[in-house]
Input
Amino acid sequence: MNKDEVSNPDCTQTPSLIKLGACFIYDALAVVALCFVSALVVIILIGDASYGLKRYLLQVVLWLAIGIYFVWCWKKTGQTLAMKTWQLKLVSKDGQLLPLNLAMARYVLSTLSLVLFGLGFLWAMVDRDHLYLHDRLLNTHIIYVPRDTTC
Output
């Protein structure tokens, strides 16, 4: 079995909405910290970015920095810092880590979910498998990964 595959059938348990929500909040805190650092670098390089073209540049840089963080984490281990803490892992329908194109598509769709008042994330409350809308569309899912297993 490939090291990227979920090797333990017990690792297919769907996490609770509480665990998903806690992970979401924890990830949001990590994103805020990442934004502070990224914004500082941009402001040092280009100066005041509170208006005009510089403001749009800052927004694009922040979106890209956040995207690099999430896509890299999802592709490399299937887990962000928050997901490791809450013992969650993002996998494809066959239990493997996401390929780059799927991780990037998930980031774009999750961004759209947030822009649309978080509806794509709220979808998990009505979904029978507690999947976010972008996970339902991309056929990916978040699984519970107990610390003492090899998922």
The two ends are 12 Å apart (CA to CA). Residues 1-6 have pLDDT under 50 and may be disordered. Residues 13-144 form one domain.
